[in-house]
Amino acid sequence: MGKLLEVNNLSISFTQYVQGLQRHYLKVISDLTLDIGESEIVAVLGSSGSGKSLLAHSILGILPYNSHVTGEIKFKGETLTQETKEKIRGREICLIPQSVNFLDPLMKVSQQAVGECKDDEERKEKQIRQREVFSKYGLDESVDDLYPFELSGGMARKVLLSTALLNDPDLLIADEPTPGLDVKSVEETIQDIRNLKENGKGVLLITHEIDVALKTADRIAIFYSGYVIEINKVENFVNSKNLLHPYSRALVDALPKNGFKLTKGVQPLEEVPGCPYYENCPIRLDKCQNNKPELIKHGDAMIRCFNFDEDIPADSEAVVSEESDVIVSEDLVSEELVSEESDVIVSEDLVSEELVSEESEDVVVEEILEVEEVNDES
Ligand SMILES: Nc1ncnc2c1ncn2[C@@H]1O[C@H](COP(=O)(O)OP(=O)(O)O)[C@@H](O)[C@H]1O
Ligand code: SF4
Ligand SMILES: [Mg+2]
Question: pTM (2 decimals)?
Fold first, then answer.
């Protein structure tokens, strides 16, 4: 399986002016490394404000002017420059943007979806396909002539989705593609993303909904405070014991199917000298306070934690224990999610309301089991 996208040590920061004169650097993404192969869906899972959209925008070369970027992004083995990003975006790499503001307010939605064409023949073909894709998402012919302000939020999201799929990209970046869609459209979106994979395409799925990541992705990269702290196969998310980082384990233990084991903790908003999880980590070591763990390979997975450094013996007390109290971000605490008995709070941002219901929990479990079966067979 060839690599379609490689992001190496990407960091993004912003210059801000405090009290008029003092310059302040806000680091949002730190040392991010991930890759996506052909026929692969990789989900980036993180809470709101953790820099997920910025990752998408940096791949496409559409970051705001006050951003500073270091690191390298490769597409099909070639390092991307601003010029090459502009050339391939909307063609080989397409974005389903998070915000409906990406639609041009002065252009009819069907024209936007068809986009630039090299000749009349290509235009005709794309117009036929545009109608097919729009119909599939329940957008009838009357929608073609509408302007974005005439669309409801859900319709606008369907237009964005159809526009990206219409271009048949080699790599699709889907930035929160499902919120605001009805249940049927969510299922169709997930299926379309999986169809792209079946056709050899790659997908970067950006989401704050763990159930969407579990249902759709082959691998999940967990974002914490601007760092990717673990990348692991989706089947390992069935049981927190299969995961490596204490935060990833906490996320999975906080799912309803795992008994809602919740604990307290806040993601640091500012850069800290050591491991970003230090303040909340139940298995921290002295060295974690002032030293940053690197993202390293561990079998098929990637992990950013000193407990997986080779210099630490396997029988060290610090190795993740089953009893350890895991801690998850309390930045978006939902009252309903916090039970009296539990000493943990999970970010509600990462656990969608659907997942909280008993029925949908079963659906997610079934999906995971199906993934497991497929993997066992292959
Ligand atoms: N133009 C900007 N100037 C300063 N900070 C910004 C700018 N754009 C984004 N940010 C910062 O980056 C953070 C992450 O943004 P974003 O990628 O949209 O998060 P996510 O998609 O994970 O919700 C924001 O919370 C904000 O603090
Ligand atoms: S053990 Fe140390 S490096 Fe690992 S997550 Fe905890 S604080 Fe971070
Ligand atoms: Mg976003």
Answer: 0.81
Beta-carbon contacts of 208 under 8 Å, excluding residues fewer than 6 positions away, are 45, 46, 47, 48, 52, 176, 349, 350
- Ligand closest to 99 (CA) is 3
Listed by start position, the domains of the chain span 101-168
In angstroms, the CA 46 to CA 340 distance is 26
What are the strands, taking DSSP E only, across 107-198? Answer: 171-175
CB-CB contact of 144 with 67 (8 Å): no
Question: Ligand 2: which residues within 6 Å by Cβ?
Answer: 245-246, 275, 277-278, 281, 283-285, 288, 293, 305-307
- Residues 6+ positions from 279 with CB-CB distance below 8 Å: 265, 266, 268, 272
Segment 50-97, tens digit of pLDDT = 889 999 999 999 999 889 999 999 999 999 999 999 999 988 999 999
Q: Of all helices (H) and strands (E), which one includes residue 44?
A: strand 40-45
Dihedral over alpha carbons 284, 285, 289, 290 (to 10 degrees): -140
The residue behind tokens 């067979």 is 377
